[in-house]
Design goal:
The strands form three sheets. A seven-stranded mixed sheet has the order 3-2-1-9-10-12-11, with helices on both faces. The chain is built from nine helices and twelve strands. The N and C termini lie far apart (50 Å). Strand 11 and strand 12 form a beta hairpin. The longest helix is centred in the N-terminal third of the chain and has 10 residues. The protein has one domain: 3-Layer(aba) Sandwich (Rossmann fold), CATH 3.40.50.150. It is α/β, with parallel strands linked by helices. Helices cover 29% and strands 27% of the residues.
Length: 228
Amino acid sequence: MIEWKWLLRTRVLGGRLHWFYKLRYEKSVRHRLGQIRGELFWDIGANIGFYSLFLSRNFSKIVAVEPNPETAATLRRKTQGTDNIAILELALSNTNGPTRLYTQREKFCLAGFNNKNGSDSLLSQIDYKSSRDPSNDRVVQNRPSIQVLQRRFDDLSAGPVDLVKIDVEGAEFLVLEGMRGSLKERSVKRVMVELHNREDKTTLESLFATYGYAIEWVDPDHLFATSP
């Protein structure tokens, strides 16, 4: 059976509805991040570069992290001519070395926002449980995988970071575990995390509270953490 939401997105969401979606896409997140300016922004889970490009004038340097080779190639094409965006073709996690990236082309994408590899993850199984739309709860598993390189944020970043955005399809806690040193030292000033399972809200809040960050839910699925 074809889910009506997939049908809506693939068959109906075009033309006038597409520009409407563009106006609404993560509106609260865009509003909050658009107010931030600084030297360095890490876009973890950059996909084809929506936020890297959106914030390209706000930061002196942007590091866009995307492990899928096909998506990274698109990211490079889209950011040509933007000299302050550096692309790292790897995954951020809690350890260093090779790992598997579980990937399967999705049924839809929206040009300019993502591509059909938008649900790539380091997790072999993702329990999608959005606070925004519980009716769309689903489990994604049994997908093919490719080998990619994974690194810890703490091993790549030295010095202050003004903003980190994390959207990694359920693997956000792996990324954050690899950032513990930076969080403890508060060298990362602000973090925006998309949480893919609402049952982990308390765990995410507690993690940032441990390091003294102030937290705010800017929408049902995005937590914004700020260092004192």
